[in-house]
């Protein structure tokens, strides 16, 4: 996919992904602290189903008004429960939302103003977004730790977390496709050091790509 960038815009995209509970947000925030722009698929996914958006109305019509809270927001627990127990429901929802999310992500990537931009997406590989990134960074943790962290963080059952993990890209495939891997089983200080090293690597790569591009 070819992008057209204006002056000062990022021409180098780093994709950041990892399984649920791996610590993508923590890693992304460390890059943001270095002055790097983030384009977050989870944020965009929430924006496209905000009150007043056509996608939210379509969900309510298709699945029923129980998918809305009393104040007109998306009832996320109800929707999550439905799509992880019904493959047809998940397929319908994906067909509705993925093109909208992708369009918004690409638009935000084009507008990013830092030396490189970080595309943060849990389903980056699954949704074919790896084709738009220059480098793929995977945050990796042991699956058992993944499960424990997510149960504690989201206050949901281990069965639901296991279902989400099963729906995501296999760990072995994710690691195989990665250009860089961050193991997130240590402390934040170790994580910060890894991000600082990678930040310098990506700055160098971005500068090299820019030098090679036609003026």
Looking at this protein, list some descriptive labels.
5 strands, Rossmann fold, five-stranded parallel beta sheet, 53% helix, 9 helices
Topology:
Layout: E1 13-17, H1 24-32, E2 37-40, H2 41-47, H3 54-63, H4 76-83, H5 87-111, E3 117-120, E4 135-140, H6 143-154, H7 158-167, H8 171-177, E5 180-183, H9 188-212
Describe the structure.
This protein has 215 residues and is α/β, with parallel strands linked by helices. The protein has 9 helices and 5 strands; from the N terminus they run βαβααααββαααβα. The chain has helices at 24-32, 41-47, 54-63, 76-83, 87-111, 143-154, 158-167, 171-177, 188-212; strands spanning 13-17, 37-40, 117-120, 135-140, 180-183. Helix 6 packs across helix 7.
Brief write-up:
This protein has 215 residues and is an alpha/beta fold. The chain has helices at residues 24-32, 41-47, 54-63, 76-83, 87-111, 143-154, 158-167, 171-177, 188-212, and strands at 13-17, 37-40, 117-120, 135-140, 180-183. The radius of gyration is 18 Å and the shape is globular.
Overall strand count: 5
Q: How many domains is the backbone divided into? A: 1
Characterize the overall form. globular
Structural class: alpha/beta
Mean pLDDT: 89
CATH class division: Alpha Beta
Biggest sheet: strands, sense, closure?
5 strands, parallel
The CATH topology corresponds to Rossmann fold
Rg estimate, integer Å: 18 Å
- Point out poorly predicted stretches: 1-8
Compute the number of helices: 9
Strand order of the largest sheet: 2-3-1-4-5
Quote the beta fraction. Answer: 5-15%
Return the string of H and E elements: EHEHHHHEEHHHEH
Second rung of CATH, namely the architecture: 3-Layer(aba) Sandwich
Proportion of helical residues? 40-55%
Oligomer: single chain
